[in-house]
């Protein structure tokens, strides 16, 4: 069982614009959750809404403007509402790096699958592997339109 999902995409946009798309609640809902309830700041536990697919509470762990944003959530658990830090969870990290050609590389990492309950591990990894491919494609398309 793999413990980590990692994806990289390169976009022709500034670090500032990409970071805003990931860390600003007004913009993140344009490509990832449909809704965001609560404060999307470090130490807070806002709720991502995914329409008919339910809601998931997250815990924002870190925000280093224009370079890094991270939160924890409970993968494979549609409708998890509660204190994320008291149950098995994974860490989602976005790293943004400028490249020499004026583009930026975004690296998404989700880690911690090995620490999930055995019955959730494989399904959560498989679901999120495909899910991140889909969502990062949406991020790229969103960045191209703004």
TrEMBL record:
Chain ranges of the Activator of Hsp90 ATPase homologue 1/2-like C-terminal domain: 12-144
InterPro entries per record: ASHA1/2-like_C, START-like_dom_sf
Family label: Belongs to the AHA1 family.
Protein name: Uncharacterized protein YndB with AHSA1/START domain
Source organism (scientific name): Arenicella xantha
